[in-house]
């Protein structure tokens, strides 16, 4: 993919989708700095980009911790001397905590606040500290990750849905405020995206999801990777303030 060579991107969050993005960025000659709460996930992402032809460095990150976010951004500058873009994909997906994210009557306010701190405030923090460097580089791109839960009403995942909707508003604010200075900001909304291992272990879920979408299969990390890499690249320079659903058409009728 063109428009990526020698660009430096910060990833806040790792995992399957981030691996898919790293694959495309590496092929385009980019470099990444990846932070994740699970260091081994960030390290795997670096392995992917290096195999694809790029370079990168991994670190641990609690995206809700302001000092750790500052260190992530500083690592990008000290290692590569610049930051051209930011990819936010972190979210609180701890199964025990997801189970507590229920509805307005039942949710505990501490659980509500923790999800907001990770899923929404974390994206604010990374943007806050990456933006000055993106501006110094003459502009660049920020890509945030929301969810189809924003569009499809769900009886649970209350805070998750609320925070993902908030990220959409944050995305448009950044696009509006810094667009004239060359900063683009967009969001991607994934449907069900599974690695090969996840696909093998999720038969019932896959069957259920496929009944609700026009596409003949669920998503792969590479599906997200292609879209995010495009939005980070220079060839998408006239696209900003948008949310793009990469979900096999799951929410096109909502």
UniProtKB/TrEMBL annotation:
<dbReference type="GO" id="GO:0016491">
    <property type="term" value="F:oxidoreductase activity"/>
</dbReference>
<dbReference type="InterPro" id="IPR020904">
    <property type="entry name" value="Sc_DH/Rdtase_CS"/>
</dbReference>
<keyword id="KW-0560">Oxidoreductase</keyword>
<protein>
    <submittedName>
        <fullName>NAD(P)-dependent dehydrogenase, short-chain alcohol dehydrogenase family</fullName>
    </submittedName>
</protein>
<comment type="similarity">
    <text>Belongs to the short-chain dehydrogenases/reductases (SDR) family.</text>
</comment>
<dbReference type="InterPro" id="IPR002347">
    <property type="entry name" value="SDR_fam"/>
</dbReference>
<dbReference type="InterPro" id="IPR036291">
    <property type="entry name" value="NAD(P)-bd_dom_sf"/>
</dbReference>
<dbReference type="Pfam" id="PF13561">
    <property type="entry name" value="adh_short_C2"/>
</dbReference>
């Amino acid at each position: 993919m063109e428009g990526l060579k020698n660009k430096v991107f910060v990833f806040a969050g790792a995992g399957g989708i981030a691996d898919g993005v790293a694959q495309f960025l590496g092929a385009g000659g980019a470099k990444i700095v990846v932070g994740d709460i699970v260091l081994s996930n960030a390290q795997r992402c670096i392995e992917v980009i290096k195999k694809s032809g790029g370079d990168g460095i991994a670190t641990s990150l609690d995206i809700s911790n302001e000092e750790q976010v500052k260190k992530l951004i500083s690592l990008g500058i000290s290692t590569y001397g610049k930051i051209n873009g930011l990819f936010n994909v972190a979210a609180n997906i701890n199964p025990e905590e997801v189970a507590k994210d229920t509805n307005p009557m039942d949710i505990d306010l501490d659980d509500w606040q923790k999800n907001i701190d990770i899923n929404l405030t974390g994206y604010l923090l990374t943007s806050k500290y990456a933006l000055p460097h993106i501006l110094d580089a003459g502009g660049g791109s920020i890509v945030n990750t929301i969810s189809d839960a924003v569009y499809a009403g769900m009886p649970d995942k209350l805070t998750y849905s609320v925070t993902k909707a908030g990220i959409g508003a944050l995305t448009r604010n950044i696009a509006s405020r810094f667009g004239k200075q060359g900063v683009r900001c967009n969001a991607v909304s994934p449907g069900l995206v599974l690695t090969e291992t996840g696909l093998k272990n999720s038969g019932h879920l896959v069957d259920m999801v496929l009944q609700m979408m026009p596409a003949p299969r669920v998503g792969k990390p590479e599906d997200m990777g292609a879209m995010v890499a495009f939005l980070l690249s220079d060839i998408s320079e006239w696209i900003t303030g948008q949310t793009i659903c990469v979900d096999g058409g799951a929410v096109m009728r909502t």
